[in-house]
């Protein structure tokens, strides 16, 4: 297991390095450059040149990349002129808030999706299954911005019981101190996830309910409740575990549309604004963070899989 | 097959789902109503404003930090020497109420301006004196390469002598005679008194001295102040920024978040704040801002162009919807240095033809829903009087005449096909110097994404051009300025033909609308590299001639010569504010906001 872990960590490191190289190249090949985007149309040629010199943009890209990696290893992700603050500071201000929103929506989605998936599986091809499937498909097919907008109009304007924007607090504590503001963005973000997860749970449960081990358990006289919740559900959760691992990057990057719609100053918004303004240091910093989260997420998914399914460990030991 | 899943288990699952939903509902109820804590008009002493978070506090602008929100924020805390208004009521457009000094007395044949300060104090009670103006001058003179407003030949290069006579009076002698209106409006507008008694040091722990009076010392002081300005998270705690001269003080500052301004009790100006607090709330985008506006959670916001149809709804919710006209012009930049199409743009008849294919009145009325008005030349129409007709424009929409012009200059016009040069040459009835036979009229416009009206506008122009066989390709990018730089024909970046960055107006002027930064040869914002000796002469006259008709002469020439194609000029924004909020109007055409004038009915 340790060897497996080391191998996977090595692979992860290579992936992160490759991502930074590719992101660095793509960003620096974009026409226009950062100087004009940052300093605006009024900037003189001298000011543009000074900016490029200060940021190192007047050097060959390989040299720039070397300098970037050197700074990266010291925990310095650079400085954003657009925000007038360091990239680390900008990310550290937003990341916890995005994680709060993502975690809340994920927990809500899981807590609702698992029972819904189970209900669909055990009542498959009957009205509860049809009803939940229809609602899931509707939720899945509805664009998230439209869903959010409908919720805002419904609960902030027609029936004004919830604020139309997320909490504007600077710290996580301030954000959590305004729970009403979190309701609509959390629900909007959770709805699509519920639809996806419940379909996966349903599918896995249906497959498992037809397995021989379920028939054996039933024939041994176990109660149906025990068969479903103790035996089948455990196997039925495997796809959810894999999905959760892959969800980790989203936890870090945030949901762009929801953050934008509800004025939530999180990571998704940070990245979007940086893309519009060609804020290269921010773009690179966020890309690095998300690429790390992606490989860590895949790793966590694998490890969780191994933890809940002994067969996975056995196969790996054998190999 | 009938499931054997017991109903009790099913009920359990449903109960879990219901509990979560109920929990969410309880959280909602616990939060109370949809009103935000600071929003709305609760207490009638606060106004909440949709406003991007300012990120520069030092009253000397720095490259990269010249956005409008920084200017408004800066003015709230640090008053400029002169404030301006464009209603034609005062000499040199100086606003006598808000300005910190009396209008300058001109002598020495126009070379010397003597300025007397009014009685004003800093927030700590110390008087504002000429020492504070001198402090500003010392800092910019020693650090002009780091000052965003510096232009070679402008302040401080154009000052031959700076003399302080006493605590209240100083004089400026210029290197040559300038047009006083230009100098007062476009040079003296940069001066902001700064508290020498609190800032003249090179570290937080140092004692205040006369350090900035030497160039080396001024560099150290400037570096210290700049470093503090680059630390936004300390804006509301740093002692430096607590000494202000403006009507507001900074009560709370959240980097990239809300900013709260509180009325400055010791403010010495006559325009004292009527409200206790102004909350500046940033939004992640137009949609988020408009949702909050619709819900009534802010007192002053804006209506995105895509939502103008909801004006009636906002009015029914108690908002006043009002266009904010800017002291601006909008144009389509032509790249005269493009190695392929530059030769086309250099032909005046061709520029005229293209201009005649832009139906400014109709585009303004239909596509911009009346929130734009034709631009006819480089000097804007008087703010607030923007009509939707192009009566004053030299070239009105006239496709027939455009076709005639092309044909009379050797082009074979093929409607809905491809128009090509048939008669090359530099003669009067030929295509023009450098245009080969068979050259097609194919042009590309690099425009802005994210503005529905802009997209529709170019679709309309493309359609008009196609009728004369001119193929217009529209390329939308997030930042059209960044990808259309001023260039030499040999540069790889010089492949752009036409550039548009005017969805909220291309250029906003200071009080005097001269074109030395836009249309003079080599000017910093002359992205298309337009160059005309006659234009240069007229632009120079606006700066150096005492003749009041210089500005008109300059406008008339460039309106006709078309250094760019004039386009419908959109309003800065369509504002929406609670009808009970007074003092918002008239909205300043130079894009300042004077929160101190605001009050609740």
Automatic annotation (TrEMBL), chain A:
Location in the cell: Cell membrane
Q: Does the keyword Transmembrane helix apply?
A: yes
Q: Where is the ABC transmembrane type-1 domain?
A: 95-301
Question: Which Pfam families does this one have?
Answer: BPD_transp_1 (PF00528), BPD_transp_1_N (PF19300)
InterPro entries with a match to the protein in the record:
BPD_transp_1_N, MetI-like, MetI-like_sf
PANTHER family reported in the protein's UniProt record: DIPEPTIDE TRANSPORT SYSTEM PERMEASE PROTEIN DPPB-RELATED (PTHR43163)
Q: What does the UniProt keyword field contain?
A: Cell membrane, Membrane, Transmembrane, Transmembrane helix, Transport
How does the record classify its membrane topology?
Answer: Multi-pass membrane protein
Q: Give the similarity note.
A: Belongs to the binding-protein-dependent transport system permease family.
Record field: transmembrane:
12-30, 99-119, 131-159, 179-197, 236-262, 282-308
- Top-rank taxon, per record: Bacteria
Q: Which organism is it from?
A: Micromonospora halotolerans
Return the protein name. ABC transporter permease
Automatic annotation (TrEMBL), chain B:
Keyword Signal in annotation: yes
> Which Gene3D superfamilies did the record assign?
Dipeptide-binding Protein, Domain 3, Periplasmic binding protein-like II
Task: Give the primary localization class.
Answer: other
Keyword check for Transport, yes or no.
yes
- Look up the signal peptide feature and give its range: 1-23
**Alphabetized InterPro entries for the sequence:** Peptide/Ni-bd (IPR030678), SBP_5 (IPR039424), SBP_5_dom (IPR000914)
For this UniProt record, give its keywords in alphabetical order, as a comma-separated list: Signal, Transport
Q: Known PROSITE patterns for this protein?
A: PROKAR_LIPOPROTEIN
From the Swiss-Prot or TrEMBL record, state where the protein is found: Cell envelope
* Family stated for the protein in its record: Belongs to the bacterial solute-binding protein 5 family.
This one is known as Peptide ABC transporter substrate-binding protein
User: From what organism does this protein derive?
Assistant: Micromonospora halotolerans
């Amino acid at each position: 297991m340790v060897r497996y872990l080391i191998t996977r960590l090595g692979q992860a490191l290579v992936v992160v390095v490759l991502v930074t190289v590719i992101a660095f190249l793509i960003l620096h090949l974009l026409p226009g450059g950062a100087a004009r985007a940052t300093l605006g149309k009024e900037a003189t040629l001298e000011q543009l040149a000074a900016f490029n010199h200060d940021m190192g943009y007047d050097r060959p890209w390989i040299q720039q990349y070397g300098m970037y990696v050197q700074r990266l290893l010291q925990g310095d992700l650079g400085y954003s002129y657009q925000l007038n603050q360091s990239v680390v500071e900008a990310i550290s201000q937003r990341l916890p808030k995005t994680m709060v929103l993502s975690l809340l929506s994920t927990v809500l989605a899981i807590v609702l999706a698992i029972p819904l998936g189970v209900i669909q599986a055990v009542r498959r091809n009957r009205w509860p299954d049809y009803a939940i499937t229809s609602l899931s498909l509707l939720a899945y097919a509805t664009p998230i911005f439209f869903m959010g907008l409908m919720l805002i109009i419904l609960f902030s304007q027609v029936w004004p019981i919830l604020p139309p924007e997320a909490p504007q607090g600077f710290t996580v504590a301030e954000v959590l101190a305004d729970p009403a503001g979190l309701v609509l963005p959390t629900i909007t973000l959770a709805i699509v996830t519920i639809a996806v997860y419940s379909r996966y749970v349903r599918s896995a449960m249906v497959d498992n309910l037809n397995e021989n081990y379920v028939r054996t358990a039933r024939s041994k006289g176990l109660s149906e409740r025990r068969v479903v919740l103790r035996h089948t559900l455990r196997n039925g959760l495997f796809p959810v575990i894999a999905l959760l691992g892959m969800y980790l990057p989203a936890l870090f990057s945030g949901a762009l549309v929801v953050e934008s719609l509800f004025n939530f100053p999180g990571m998704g918004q940070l990245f979007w604004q940086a893309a519009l303004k060609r804020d290269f240091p921010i773009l690179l910093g966020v890309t690095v963070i998300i690429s790390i989260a992606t490989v860590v997420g895949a790793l966590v998914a694998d490890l969780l899989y191994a933890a809940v399914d002994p067969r996975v460990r056995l196969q790996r030991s054998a190999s | 097959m009938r499931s054997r899943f017991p109903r009790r288990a099913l009920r359990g699952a449903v109960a879990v789902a219901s509990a979560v939903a109920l929990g969410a509902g309880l959280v909602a109820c616990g939060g109370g109503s949809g009103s935000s804590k600071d929003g709305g008009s609760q207490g009638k002493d606060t106004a909440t404003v949709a406003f991007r978070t300012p990120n520069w506090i030092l009253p000397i602008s720095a490259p990269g930090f010249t956005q409008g929100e920084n200017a408004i924020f800066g003015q709230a805390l640090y008053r400029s020497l002169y404030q301006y208004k464009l209603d034609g009521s005062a000499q040199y457009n100086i606003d006598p109420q808000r300005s910190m000094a009396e209008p300058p007395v001109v002598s020495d044949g126009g070379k010397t301006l003597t300025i007397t300060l009014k009685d004003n104090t800093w927030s700590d009670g110390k008087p504002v004196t000429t020492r504070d103006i001198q402090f500003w001058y010392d800092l910019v003179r020693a650090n002009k390469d780091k000052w965003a407003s510096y232009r070679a030949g402008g302040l401080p290069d154009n000052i031959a002598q700076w003399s302080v006579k006493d605590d209240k009076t100083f004089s400026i002698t210029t290197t040559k005679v300038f047009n006083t209106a230009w100098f007062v409006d476009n040079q003296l507008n940069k001066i902001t008194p700064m508290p020498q008694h609190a800032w003249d040091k090179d570290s937080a722990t140092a004692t205040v001295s006369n350090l900035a009076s030497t160039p080396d010392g001024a560099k150290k002081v400037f570096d210290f102040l700049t470093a503090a300005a680059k630390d936004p998270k300390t804006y509301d705690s740093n002692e430096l920024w607590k000494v202000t001269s403006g009507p507001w003080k900074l009560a709370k500052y959240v980097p990239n978040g809300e900013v709260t301004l509180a009325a400055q009790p010791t403010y010495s100006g006559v325009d004292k704040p009527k409200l206790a607090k102004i909350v500046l709330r940033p939004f992640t985008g137009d949609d988020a801002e408009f949702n909050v506006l619709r819900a009534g959670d802010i007192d002053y916001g804006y209506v995105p162009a895509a939502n103008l149809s909801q004006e009636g709804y906002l009015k029914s919710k108690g908002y006043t919807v009002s266009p904010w006209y800017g002291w601006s012009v909008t144009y389509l930049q032509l790249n005269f240095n493009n190695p392929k199409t530059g030769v086309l743009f250099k032909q005046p008849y061709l520029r005229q033809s293209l201009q005649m294919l832009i139906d400014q009145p109709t585009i303004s009325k239909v596509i911009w829903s009346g929130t734009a008005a034709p631009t006819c030349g480089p000097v804007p129409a008087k703010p607030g009087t923007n009509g939707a007709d192009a009566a004053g424009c030299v070239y009105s929409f006239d496709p027939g005449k455009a076709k005639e012009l092309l044909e009379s200059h050797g082009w074979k016009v093929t409607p809905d096909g491809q128009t090509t040069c048939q008669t090359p040459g530099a003669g009067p009835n030929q295509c023009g110097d450098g245009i080969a036979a068979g050259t097609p009229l194919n042009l590309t416009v690099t425009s802005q994404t994210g503005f529905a009206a802009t997209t529709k506008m170019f679709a309309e122009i493309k359609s008009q051009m196609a009728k004369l066989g001119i193929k217009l390709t529209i390329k939308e990018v997030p930042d059209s300025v960044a990808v259309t730089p001023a260039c030499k024909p040999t540069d790889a970046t010089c492949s752009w033909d036409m550039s548009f960055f005017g969805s909220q107006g291309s250029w906003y002027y200071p009080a005097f609308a001269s074109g030395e930064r836009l249309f003079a040869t080599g000017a910093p914002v002359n992205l298309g590299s337009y160059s005309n000796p006659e234009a240069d002469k007229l632009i120079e006259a606006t700066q150096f001639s005492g003749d009041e008709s210089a500005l008109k002469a300059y406008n008339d020439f460039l309106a006709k010569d078309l250094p760019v194609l004039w386009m419908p000029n959109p309003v800065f924004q369509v504002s929406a504010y609670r009808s009970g909020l007074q003092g918002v109007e008239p909205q300043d055409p130079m894009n300042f906001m004077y929160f101190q004038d605001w009050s609740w009915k």
